[in-house]
Amino acid sequence: MQGNLPPEAQEKIEELQDLQETAQQVAQQKQQAETQLRESETALETLDGIEGETQMYSEVGELLIETEYDEAYENLDEKVDSLEVRVETLDKQEERVREQFESLQDELQQMLQGGAGGGPMGPGGPGAGGA
């Protein structure tokens, strides 16, 4: 079917496919960030419920390093703040991609409807030869 479409319509379809891929990537990134945010918030809540003198460890790569309560709390709090900003940014990006997709979809639909069949006065319309 795409072989019969005008080049402009084919370009719009390719742009739609690209936007769809972008939307999927943004959705995946957002889901990962939301999961990390929930995990970090849970860890922060857990820290609220323990004493400041409790022996604590922080994961650094493959290692666990002893850390102070205040340092662990501050690091987690910063991570939560950072992830909240990330999720908000991805929300906005997701919305922009959705708006672009819908706009492009409308353009393509108008292009295809406007170019189909030559309109009411096209071939076979009034005045077509046939003596």
UniProtKB/TrEMBL annotation:
Transmembrane region(s): none
Residue ranges, compositional bias (Low complexity): 20-35
Protein's UniProt keywords contain Cytoplasm: yes
Coiled coil: none
Annotated stretches, region: Disordered: 19-41, 112-131
One example GO MF annotation: protein-folding chaperone binding
Gene Ontology, cellular component aspect: cytoplasm; prefoldin complex
Biased composition range(s): Gly residues: 114-131
One Pfam short name: Prefoldin_2
Gene3D superfamilies xrefs: 1.10.287.370
SUPFAM superfamilies: Prefoldin
Localization (cell): Cytoplasm
Keyword annotations from UniProtKB, A to Z: Chaperone, Cytoplasm
NCBIfam families according to UniProt: gimC_beta
Subunit structure: Heterohexamer of two alpha and four beta subunits.
HAMAP family, A to Z: PfdB (MF_00307)
Record-stated family: Belongs to the prefoldin subunit beta family.
Protein name per UniProt: Prefoldin subunit beta
Species in which this protein is naturally found: Natronomonas moolapensis (strain DSM 18674 / CECT 7526 / JCM 14361 / 8.8.11)
Taxonomic classification: Archaea, Methanobacteriati, Methanobacteriota, Stenosarchaea group, Halobacteria
